[in-house]
User: Fold this.
Amino acid sequence: MAHSWFPTFMQRLTERYPRLIIELTVDYSPALNERLNSNELDILLAMNGYLPSEQIDHETLSPYEMGMFVSPRHAQMLSKRPDAWHSTLPFISFGKLARPYEELVSYLADQGVQQPRIHSVSTLMTIVRLTTEGLGIGALPVATVLDEWRRGELFRLALPAPLPAMHYDVIWRSAYHPRFCRGVGRLAQECALEYAAEKHTEITNTCFTGCWVTPSVPSSTPKATPPSI
Assistant:
């Protein structure tokens, strides 16, 4: 969650609990839930994979608006061949076990894109880097790439329908230090709300300018194929 509310949350957490020792782990949500269930982890920030509801409690965080982005050279190509986005370029998303990957596949199917090529990676910032380097179409939280979008390092696709938002929750076992965990969860919720409000103000400000490219919606159900070499 680089370039998000998470650094602020960590700073406030250590200020509130100065003697707290923190160990961070990054993995897919289902794997993290398994480790929570086995008492290896205390609190999760996860997108999916809940344990049985009677075992956990959670706080919902502000959702991230999602968008599709491409590098400037791909934007130039799409401006000349607006129907090429679904047949020529691969997509870049989280790993196959993550909810955004599943939602991207479902979204593309709704748009008539069958069997898309999707590069899956484990971290958000890797998706950003691979997209800016021109590997394909990155499915990204809009707030995360506002600076790159403003500077023209990324172009945003004007999609026919919005992508599903990315949802995070703070999750903990209800029987394990519930008062402390709920306090941590509400602190995370507070930081996420502040971040969401800040980014919403930034993007709706009249001074904000971002580069767009408008693809064509496929009229049939094409299969994604590699570009001709």
Summary: Residues 218-229 have pLDDT under 50 and may be disordered. Helices lie at 6-16, 29-37, 72-80, 99-110, 124-132, 146-150, 178-204.
